[in-house]
Design brief:
Layout (H helix, E strand, L loop, with lengths): L4 E4 L17 E4 H4 L3 H13 L10 H7 L4 E4 L6 H8 L7 H23 L7 H26 L2 E2 L15 E2 L1 H18 L14 H14 L3 H13 L23 E5 L13 H5 L9 E4 L1 H5 L12 H5 E2 L21 E2 L19 E5 H14 L3 H16 L1 H4 L22 H15 L6 H8 L1 H8 L6 H4 L6 H6 L6
Antiparallel strand pairs: 1-2, 3-7, 4-5, 6-10, 8-9
Helix pairs in contact: 2-5, 2-6, 5-6, 6-7, 6-8, 7-8, 8-9, 8-13, 9-13, 13-14, 13-16, 14-16, 17-18
Length: 492
């Protein structure tokens, strides 16, 4: 990020899963590389690479899940102790998770900045140029959205490091980072296409830009702004809920109509383009590390009928006693210190014979998330009668899994009183219902901790106080020591 030269590790994606199919190009200077349309596409490939979970450094799950009330570190006692320190809010600035995520996402920012600086100078197809720039702006916004929500005040870099004055920048206020995020997403929404086809599937779309813009507005309690962005997303007609919830997390049903932004992976490539999350989360009997272990408090969040039938999303999300694991064998609760393992990012041994090289994508944003954001914004604007409609669409899909998933006991009929529609509309009760629904619908998709933080001190400390969490002290994580050591513009 601080060099005037850079190396593009170009991914070799093939098939309908992915859109990146360029060969390894080697080392170039910034002055000689950006010459052709092909160069621009290769450079953009390098930006997308920094969203992927192809190695151990993209550890968004540690913050989103483990730091929350949904999970603990898991794994062998003592293994990856820095994850445990994050969970206990007892970490120090030299924590490797802090530095891994900081470096990974700032590398993404830097690559996006190179694209945005040099691609406008290339003589190439005008509409493709604009689309590439829109994708780069979306990706830069994505990186900054994660960085600002983890670390708070951070350096805001919008130019490549072509001079010493652009390398070491001081921290910017959180509001300024969000303003840049929203500018980038607004720009991207103008030029990005509604949908892609063929090998371009998986690129950022207009809907992805509006979806992340809605999320940014929501995080800043701009409820009306969030609704405007959601209205624009829904106007495209490109999104709906899939009939069976679990199909959002299977290789064979990826990039479906519910997917708003999905990070692509492909197994069996050299260098590896597979998803390493399968390695992190699978049980040890399949050479997994069994990290990110769900806790009983998360299990208890799922609703049950009087007859004991549980919300089917629980067993789509979590491996637990009395149920099958992904390979068809009985789940053994001794596989995890908590008795549970997360399932959404794991593949069976038949689909991913090399465990750390899974073809499963990571779905960052789904239409269900959009519907719950819509419900929240409407409720905060005192429009509870309208807010229950998108909320109940999410609940309806969950209970109707019994009509479409033949693997469920009693398939073909919805169990009595399972996940009834929410009918009350008072703001306080409905706010709690929406927060509950986000937790069970989006569980182990790396969003929970960030939701708790934006809900505010009372909710966050009620959920995390047992881990020593203080909202005043721990709202944001510390900037890593590695950055303080190299950037004299940051002093604390």
């Amino acid at each position: 990020m601080r060099s005037f030269r850079f190396i593009f590790l170009v991914l070799i994606f093939t098939g309908c899963h992915n859109f990146l199919d360029e060969n390894l190009q080697g080392t170039f200077s910034s002055a000689t590389f950006y010459q052709t349309q092909s160069d621009a596409l290769v450079a953009l490939t390098g930006v997308y690479n920094m969203t992927a979970y192809v190695n151990i450094k993209n550890q968004l799950w540690v913050f989103g899940d483990v730091a929350s009330d949904d999970a603990v570190k898991g794994g062998l006692a003592g293994d990856q102790a820095d994850i445990q320190y994050i969970d206990q809010f007892s970490y120090v600035r030299t924590n490797t998770v802090l530095s891994n995520v900081w470096q990974y996402y700032y590398e993404g920012v830097s690559r996006a900045n190179y694209v945005l600086y040099y691609v406008p100078r290339i003589a190439m197809d005008h509409s493709l140029k604009n689309r590439i720039l829109g994708e780069a702006k979306f990706l830069r916004a994505f990186f900054y959205f994660n960085l600002v929500n983890i670390y708070g005040e951070i350096p805001l870099k919008t130019q490549p490091p072509l001079s010493p004055s652009l390398i070491n920048l001081p921290k910017s206020q959180v509001s300024d980072v969000y303003a840049q995020i929203e500018r980038d997403l607004t720009d991207a929404s103008v030029v990005l296409p509604r949908v892609y086809s063929g090998t371009d599937v998986g690129r950022a779309t207009k809907g992805a830009a509006f979806g992340l813009l809605a999320k940014s507005k929501l995080y800043n309690q701009d409820w009306a702004g969030a609704l405007t962005a959601i209205d624009s997303l829904e106007a495209s007609g490109a999104y709906s809920l899939v009939s069976v919830y679990k199909n959002n997390f299977y290789d064979s049903t990826q990039n479906n109509v519910e997917s708003v932004f999905e990070i692509q992976h492909l197994s069996g490539q050299t260098p590896s383009l597979g998803n390493f999350l399968n390695q992190w989360f699978s049980p040890a009997i399949y050479n997994g590390y069994y990290f990110d272990a769900p806790v009983q408090n998360f299990i208890d969040e799922f609703e049950k009928t009087i007859g004991g039938v549980v919300d089917p999303r629980l067993d789509y999300t979590v491996g637990r006693a009395g149920n099958k694991w992904l390979n068809g064998e009985a789940f053994d609760p001794t596989w995890s210190a908590t008795g549970f393992l997360s399932k959404k990012h794991c593949q069976s041994k038949f689909d991913a014979p090399i465990i750390g090289n899974s073809g499963l994508n990571y779905v960052y944003m789904r239409y269900a998330d959009i519907l719950l954001m819509k419900a929240e914004a409407l409720n905060e604007l005192n429009q509870g009668g309208q807010a229950i409609m998108p909320l109940n669409l999410v609940r309806k899909r969950a209970r109707e899994s019994y009509l479409y998933d033949s693997s469920l006991p009693g398939y073909g009929a919805i169990p009595a009183n399972l996940l009834p529609d929410v009918a009350y509309t008072d703001q306080v009760s409905l706010r709690s219902a929406i927060q509950h629904e986000r937790r069970v619908e989006l569980g182990f998709e790396f969003h929970r901790y960030f939701d708790l933080m934006r809900y505010g001190q009372q909710v966050a400390e009620a959920a995390l106080g047992a881990n020593g969490f203080s909202y005043a002290k721990n709202r944001y994580f510390l900037i890593p020591q590695s950055e303080l050591d190299t950037n004299p513009a940051i002093t604390n």
